[in-house]
Design goal:
By secondary structure, the protein is an alpha/beta fold. It has eight helices and five strands; from the N terminus they run H-E-H-E-H-H-E-H-H-E-E-H-H. The chain has helices at residues 3-22, 69-81, 92-108, 121-127, 147-155, 158-164, 205-234, 239-283; strands at residues 56-58, 89-90, 132-142, 171-181, 184-196. The chain has a five-stranded mixed β-sheet, with helices on both faces. A hairpin with a 2-residue loop joins strand 4 (171-181) and strand 5.
Length: 285
């Protein structure tokens, strides 16, 4: 009879030791603060008014030769390439915008970069379906000996010359239309220069959406981990249940740490793309 209490004591100590093992867990829930902000990209167009010199009038000549828009582009590119500038690419969408401008001038009998209803070159270019970062316009009204004479007249005007020799431009559209202006038979010529939006690679809107989805997922995981911590506190006297919650808790913590690291890397990558895009935009100004 005297041995039995000793055996009970040994058994009790053994059970107590095993039970204590259930209460051991690695608390790894470090709530990382992912507060990096997404930088906003400029979706900004440089004001085309800066690149619209005063329209060129030549009304002292009674008659002029027919003007071919392709030859106007050729002579324009000659002025550029002889100064080691890139030749401009003819663009049909810009041609369409230029033609609309020329016809509108003759139809409504005005000669300004801004139409009576406020429409500008940038509006015409957008309506034509050309996405741009920079746009400029040269206008001429009158009669010229030929395409070379027209381009030479623009080159003699500092503002028009600056447009023709602007190194940032990539594309060009031209229209030359004959009609009547203030009772005179004239040619209206329009050059539209542009830098396409593809010149600066914008950050993907989808990437920003994914980042916001990841933020939500991180928050949900954080809330779930907090709930597990509360469950641990509530089940300290239930070793079997407690041990199960510990495994679930540590699994969630591992998932949380992995997701927050992915989120931080995604934000860093996105912000780098934004800075690159904004630097490209700023270089156009």
């Amino acid at each position: 009879m005297g041995v039995f209490p000793k055996q009970r004591l040994i058994l009790f100590l053994l059970v107590a030791t095993i039970a204590a093992g259930f209460f051991l867990y690695k608390e790894r829930a470090i709530f990382l603060s992912v507060e990096q902000k997404l930088e906003s990209a400029y979706h900004k167009v440089v004001d085309e008014a800066v690149f619209n010199p005063e329209p060129l009038l030549r009304l002292f000549k009674e008659t002029g030769a027919p003007l071919d828009s392709r030859l106007v582009i050729n002579f324009t590119n000659t002025e550029r390439t002889t100064r080691n500038l890139n030749a401009l690419s003819a663009n049909t969408l810009l041609d369409s915008a230029a033609l609309k401008k020329a016809e509108d001038i003759l139809e409504r009998d005005y000669f300004e970069h801004t139409a009576p209803d406020g429409i500008k070159a940038s509006d015409l270019v957008s309506d034509a379906g050309y996405q741009f970062l920079l746009v400029g316009e040269n206008l001429a009204l009158g009669n010229f000996d030929d395409e070379a004479d027209l381009v030479a007249a623009w080159m003699d005007s500092p503002g028009h010359r600056a447009n023709i020799l602007q190194p940032k431009y990539k594309d060009i559209g031209v229209a030359a239309v004959r009609g009547e202006y203030e009772g005179k038979d004239v040619w209206v010529s329009v050059q539209i220069f542009a830098v396409p939006s593809s010149e600066c690679e914008a950050p993907s809107p989808r990437q920003a959406t994914v980042i916001e989805e990841m933020r939500i997922a991180v928050k949900l995981l954080r809330d779930e981990i907090e709930e597990k911590k509360n469950e641990l506190d509530e089940n300290k006297k239930n070793p079997e249940r407690y041990n199960k919650i510990v495994d679930e808790y540590n699994s969630l913590v591992g998932e949380y740490e992995e997701l927050t690291e992915d989120l931080k890397n995604s934000i860093t990558t996105y912000n780098s793309a934004v800075r690159s895009y904004n630097g490209c935009i700023e270089a156009l100004q």
